[in-house]
Amino acid sequence: MKILFYGDSNTWGYDAKDASRQKNRFTQFIKQEFSQHEIIEEGLCGRTLCLDDPYDEDRNGTKMISMVLKTHAPIDVVFIMLGTNDAKRQFSTNSISLEKGIRTLLYRALNPEIYRDGSKVPQFFVVCPPKMNRDGLNNERTKENFGDAGFEILNNTKPYLEKGCRDFDVEVIDTHAIAGSIDGIHMDESGHKQVADVLISVIQEL
């Protein structure tokens, strides 16, 4: 089975301690559990659901998803974990933006044009981004980028993601992971392990 993880810096494994890439990220734990499966990591720092970052146009997850799906086709399962960067103050968003954002991305991801070569349509799952750790608001950069409004958005994502997924019959998974305390946005090893444990259980049922 070929499984693709499409996400942002938490999928990439960003380490808030030194900006390096964590070895013990959730995708690696999953690889260790399922050596018989092909695990593909498509994590990009700063990636959004569907918003254009004025500082880097490649961060728009909707614009990139079809290229990624075509690159790795055929794919059996896709896990999408996005939404953190959509809560940045620069985008002036709110919780409803998550609903609209995941709906927009899934419209693109499920476009029959992507699969016209005969590739099968993968089974999609949407994973809630980790909840923001309030300690992160003591981090100047996090406070400037997200603020209290971002904290509120990221601590109640599931209802809005579920509304956005309803038309596609795509399950939303809440791992209940909380980001680490250094910047409040990126998971530490314990957070990655929690995400991995939940997703391993999901994969075992497929």
UniProtKB/TrEMBL annotation:
This is SGNH hydrolase-type esterase domain-containing protein. Coiled coil: none annotated. Residues 5-193 form the SGNH hydrolase-type esterase domain. It comes from the Bacteria. PANTHER family: SGNH HYDROLASE-TYPE ESTERASE DOMAIN-CONTAINING PROTEIN (PTHR30383:SF29), THIOESTERASE 1/PROTEASE 1/LYSOPHOSPHOLIPASE L1 (PTHR30383). Gene3D superfamilies: SGNH hydrolase (3.40.50.1110).
